[in-house]
């Protein structure tokens, strides 16, 4: 009885009676008699199929397994491996037993473990790494199979989302890349390059990639396609769009010749992204359509060969403002990553998903995706994804928080910027630009303007991707208008218009039209600019931007004493704010309603006017709303203390705020009262109240 129970525990969660006979080493009649007793006591039950048996509870099996003496357990595992191998069981079933007893006295164990690791590489990379690591340990240093086992281990660590471990083992396997590479080592070099890229070591990744291309037997080698794809991404991060396009096109040609469907889809998406950076909108749209068709007809099992292809497709669709398709493909990629343990792509997928949801106003999903991406990227030592996810989380926090303070969001963005360490890569520039964008949205015009121009390399914004420039020029135009710098506002607005002509996507054109609103003189033209901007954002389901534009339009209409039209705009904005789950935008809509009915009391606990947060203050048309009555209670407190001569730090200590928050309050006060400094503010407060 005991021998049968122990043999069953060693065989696994499910077992067959005929397998128990050789493993237990007992006659068949005794095994069947023992099973009868176990069944009557309900210790063993039928599992799904009548041919399969299982313990009543997995915990019971674990107790029996742990209680089996070590020597007997090893003997049972060895018998189980031999029996399963003789029956032609899958390599993973045999390797599971061999891994428990593998030793130098059984050289055949190395091959069994390697075959098992290869079989589960895409479906359970952590398990594959465990088996490959045992194979490496058992293979003698002089045995050429050791290098192959190390490359397999590096690939498994890479897929499991541990690029630092993959890099270490691959560098040990490939002490020199200066010599011509045989087949296995060329693939190892490609994986090593991928690990370096994931860790943000772009010069090293580029050097390994170029050397690998020179060392493989011919440019038609299948590994060359993978290397070209990695080189395209490295060149993209370096800002070399021409090199990125060249490598992406080469990767696509090779993928069509040598690689399965998912690799082709990823190469198409990579080529689309590279074309878009050079202004090839039509070409990018065609390539993205083809990539989406390839991905959508593939089974989940087929896509496991290259889950990065779905990420690349999602990124291309995001850049083309196909937010619904991007979200669909990114969610599918995230689900496959979680189900299979291919964690290497999950941080990138979640960061792209966070940005997609932020653009469409799905703030809750954006926040959760950014938080998970940040956690996973930190664990995997991925500074690029971690910083990107943190700054995206800061933006989601800004719009989804109920508090009237932006301190939490700004603090998260500050932490993200620390990770960039003034690095020149595009992801680092994008993080710094996102922080500046956050400051501009909070009304910190001068600091935000300065940081953005420093990060992006001047007013032309050459440092950021072309698709993001128009949005940033619109913010710069808003800041310039807020500071009264009409010439700068006009320059930024014209750049935004040129950016929209270069990349004529509806959302990009909407940003340009909103920038044009800043400098348009005739009232009718200003109204048309806002209307077209709101329509453009609406067509692309960019609900957050549509809501902000409608609030700006409502504010303009209130200033023009056109209350009925303002109410219609506010109703639409309130509906969008609820859909986005943005208390901040809802609070601004409520404040505008209060301005429509000045006698209506302010709701208790309500947030202050959040004009600073939309970054959309119309400073040329609100003369009726710029008196002291427009100040919130907190702004009144700050204004009175500032006029009394207290410094920002003194005000911060008195009101228990941060100095940054005090400066933000002062910036809003200056704009609302139309004063340039504290002296003018003190004089304004001495005048009769407006």
What does this structure look like?
- This is LuxR family transcriptional regulator.
- Strand 2 (44-47) and strand 3 form a beta hairpin.
- Helix 8 packs antiparallel against helix 9, helix 9 (145-159) packs antiparallel against helix 10 (163-173) and helix 11 runs antiparallel to helix 12.
- Residues 599-626 have low confidence and may be disordered.
- Strands 1-3-2 form a three-stranded antiparallel sheet.
- The protein has helices at 2-11, 17-24, 28-40, 58-67, 70-86, 91-101, 108-119, 125-138, 145-159, 163-173, 183-198, 202-215, 222-238, 241-258, 261-277, 281-296, 300-303, 308-319, 323-340, 346-360, 363-379, 383-400, 407-420, 426-441, 445-456, 466-483, 486-502, 506-519, 523-539, 543-559, 563-580, 583-596, 611-614, 633-643, 648-655, 659-673, 678-686, and strands at 14-15, 44-47, 49-55.
- The protein is an all-alpha fold and 690 residues long.
- The chain has six domains: 2-89, Arc Repressor Mutant, subunit A, CATH 1.10.10; 112-342, Serine Threonine Protein Phosphatase 5, Tetratricopeptide repeat; 345-464, no CATH class; 466-531, no CATH class; 542-599 and 610-619, no CATH class; 626-690, Winged helix-like DNA-binding domain superfamily/Winged helix DNA-binding domain (Arc Repressor Mutant, subunit A, Orthogonal Bundle), CATH 1.10.10.10.
- Helices cover 73% and strands 2% of the residues.
Number of beta-strand segments: 3
Q: Which range best describes the helical content: under 10%, 10-25%, 25-40%, 40-55%, 55-70% or over 70%?
A: over 70%
Q: How many separate domains make up the residues? A: 6
Give the termini distance in whole angstroms. 95 Å
Strand neighbour order, sheet with most strands: 1-3-2
CATH topology of the largest domain: Serine Threonine Protein Phosphatase 5, Tetratricopeptide repeat
